Every structure is written in C-alpha cells, then in structure tokens.
Task: structure prediction
Amino acid sequence: MHPKALLDACADLLRRTLAFEHPADALLSRHFRENRHLGPRERATLAETTYHVLRHKRLLEHLAQSGQGPHARRLAILGFQGDARFLQSALNDSEAQWRAACAPLLPGGAQWSSLPEPQRHNLPDWLAQRLREQLAAQGQADAFWPLVESLNQSAALDLRVNTLQGKRDAIAQELRAAGLTLEATPYSPWGLRLQGKPALQKLDAFQRGAIEVQDEGSQLLALLLDARRGDMVADFCAGAGGKTLALGAAMRNTGRLYAFDVSAHRLDALKPRLARSGLSNVHPIAIAHERDERIKRLSGKLDRVLVDAPCSGLGTLRRNPDLKWRQSPQAVRELTLKQQAILQSAARLLKPGGRLIYATCSLLEEENEAIAHAFDAAHGDFTALNASALLEGLKVPHAASLCSPPPAAAGQTQAEAPPATTSATASTGRFLRLWPHQHGTDGFFAAVWQRQR
Ligand SMILES: C[S@@+](CC[C@H](N)C(=O)[O-])C[C@H]1O[C@@H](n2cnc3c(N)ncnc32)[C@H](O)[C@@H]1O
Result:
C-alpha cells in the first residue's frame, strides 16, 4: 500500500472509531474483513495507530489543535505507529515540520513530562478522580501513575493450555518447536505468555484445541472456583466462554457445566471453541434474563457458580482503550444495579456447601468490593471465603500478593495466612484483586462465598 493511502486509511479508521458508535475492536475486525487485500504490516499499522490514539487521546487532541487539515488526519500523523520513513513520505512539507515540532511532547519525547497531568494520564476526569481517591483510601496513592502507565500499554498475549489435551510443559515445547517464544505465566498453572503477537490460528495446537487465548487473570478466576470432577456448575455470564472452557477442563470433562448468557450471539461464539476443546460436559443456554424459568429449575442444585458479571471493563483498557471514553459515571451506576440483581439470582442456584464467585474486569470499587459487601449484608446464609487462602491451597505462587486487603504487617508467613473460611468480611486477602501494573494481567476482582444452608 502506498504510504499516502495508508495514512489516509488510518485517518479514516480514526474518524469512525472516535465517533464511539461501535467498539474499536469490532470496527477494526470489520475493516479487515472488508479489506482482505491488506497485508500483516498494514493491518498492524492500522490497528496500532487506532489504539495508540485512543490511549493518548487527550494529549494528541491537545497537540492536534495546532495543526492543519482534517482533525482525524492530524491525529493519525501524531499517533502513526508504522515505519517512520513511511510516514515521512506521506506528509507534505508543512505537515512534516509540524510533526517535528510536536515530537518532543509525544509519549517518550524529551518534554513529555512537562505536560499537565490530564495530558499525561489520558483518562477522562471522572475516572482519574475515582482511581486517585480509591487508591489513596487504600494507602496506595503512589500507585496512580504506575497504574495509568500500564493501562496505556498493550497487553501481552497469554494462552491457556487445555490440560485435557496435554501438560503445560509439553505444549510449551511444541509451540517453541513451531517457532514461538514464550514462558510459563507466573501465577496460573495453565498459562503461557508469548513474546510478540504471533498468528496462532494455523498452529496445530490451536486447531486441535490444546491452547486458547486467555489473559492470565481470567485463568485465575476460573481456577479459584475450584470446580471438580462430577460437579454441577454454572458459568452464569458465560459470554463467548473463555472461562467456561477453563472450567470444563478443570472438571476433566465430567459433571455438568451450564453456560448461561442473555446474548445468544456471544454463546454462538463459544460453539467452535467448544468443538475444538473436546469438551462434552458444557451446556450453553441462552436466557432471557437472570430470573429466567430455566434457571429457577436448578435452584439449590449446583456445587459451583461463577458470576463473571457484565461490568465497565475498565480493567481491560490495555486491550480496549476506547472503553475509557465509552463509559460514564451514569453507565457504571446502571451496571451496579444489574450486577447486584444477577448475583442475587445466581446465588439461589447453589446447594448448601456450594461455592459462589462474583467477578468483574473492572477496577472500580463500586462494581467490586461494594457489591460484595452489599451481598454479605443481605445473605446471612453465605459465608465469605478468603481468596488468598484458597489460591494458596491451589498452589498459586505468591497468592497473598494477588489479593486485598494486603497484610497489615509486612512479612506475613504462610503459617499466618487466614483460614479459607472466615466470617470476618474485612479480613486480609479476602478478595482477588489483580492490577496490570502489579501483576501484568488485566484488572480483575473476585469475591468468594460458601453457602451454609
Ligand atoms: C464479562 S462478560 C463475560 C465474559 C466471559 N465469562 C468470558 O470469560 O469470556 C459478561 C457477560 O454477561 C452477559 N450478561 C449480561 N446480562 C446478563 C444477565 N442478566 N444474565 C446473564 N448474563 C448476562 C453479557 O452478555 C456478557 O456476555
């Protein structure tokens, strides 16, 4: 593709993305489907430029005020993520001069640190304020900048090994032999972290379902449910089934695993993944809402229920940077009502002794701890379990470092770790709390309970 045409295509994609009528990843996928002639480098430039501008939108829009020509083109010039010589040859003289003048203020530039804070954190004001307040209340005010910097980077590509098909080490060896560079993930026993973003779909391991793309944090949520052979389990908000597949494999393809979701479309995306995985214990069921009759019939019958609730997704900004511009305080408030309603309905499915997990990929306290505390207050028949102790029992390295609240005193030893079952709802390490800047995963939250009666 000619440099000028590629820059035009970047500008056109940005114009459409910044209308925020559709998620950026959906828009990009559609663009690539409709333009099959695009090569891998052109696709990478288009995708990375779009994501870079979404990540650094406040800064780039500020700098773009000084340029000339259509707004989206100015953003594409400032945020271009392809070969620098390629960009140079797409610019006219005045554009080239303007870009050179802006360069010291771009991310990584010599004068970037002199910019006002909003142009460095690139978050909407409401979100920056909430994160600052929340971190300060937890005594972690210093974590604000490391967090926003990590949210503005692209995420690593993690795989989950389908342990029904082979051990992690053996699959890692197979992938290395196919030319991939990777290492075991630090916490999940099922995970592999790839270097770069190699294409996976043609690999034999992918086609036979031995690997699935899944963030390490997501793997840990499924692990925490500790679903076992022969269990009756529900993945209440299964979506395209990332966690369903991990749960089905943990159950060794035995028992019964219901994959519920209100979106039949998302459940459809689970079907080819299920076919590859070799699982036959999964039952995808599209429901009308969380009080659907098909769910009521299962009341009091299940051993494990995972509620991977619909949420703001603000823990996934590394992958979905447009979410910070698409979310709002009002939308988050509405989500919290939905989250409470879903958790309440899902809890009814458990039998006494059964385990319930409420999880999100949000960073916000109101979608996480606040929902868990409200559930505690309304459900005396559920006892909170300690995520740190559970993960330790599952042999996850450094389990306590993945959970909050952190130990009050440094140097807590394993012997001092709290028991898995605790009625002290504010105990150390009660919640799984994953952060991109600390754990290299997306931001995740999970609270765990056991039904008593
Ligand atoms: C965070 S996503 C799930 C992601 C999925 N568990 C995975 O690992 O890939 C939340 C899902 O909740 C679904 N959802 C929304 N409202 C629901 C409801 N009332 N009952 C069940 N699922 C619901 C959405 O369609 C969406 O697929």
Remarks:
- The pocket of S-adenosylmethionine is lined by residues 218, 236-243, 260-263, 266, 289-290, 308, 310, 342 (CB under 6 Å).
- The chain has three domains: 3-109, 157-213, 216-406+427-451.
- The chain has a mean pLDDT of 95.
